[in-house]
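Thread amino acids onto this structure.
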């Protein structure tokens, strides 16, 4: 079971909390749009932009972390290959 992710925004007395499964970021963005379009909601386009930025930042940080893990594993594997031993 994958770990749920969370984004939150505090706006005055209101709290907006979005919990989602990794890989479902598009659905979260759709929810931001729906809420910003809702005339009776205090959640506006600025709020959607702030949370969209936070979501994007989290995705970039996670991608960087995964790439660093992958490159460190490849580095140790590549040094053990016969053509990397100076044969």
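Threaded sequence (87 positions):
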């Amino acid at each position: 079971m994958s770990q749920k992710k969370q984004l939150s925004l505090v706006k005055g007395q209101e709290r907006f909390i979005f919990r989602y499964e990794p890989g479902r970021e598009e659905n979260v963005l759709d929810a931001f749009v729906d809420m910003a379009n809702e005339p009776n909601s205090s959640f506006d386009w600025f709020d959607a932009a702030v949370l969209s930025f936070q979501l994007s930042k989290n995705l970039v940080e996670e991608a960087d972390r995964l790439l660093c893990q992958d490159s460190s594993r490849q580095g140790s594997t590549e040094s053990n290959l016969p053509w990397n031993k100076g044969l």
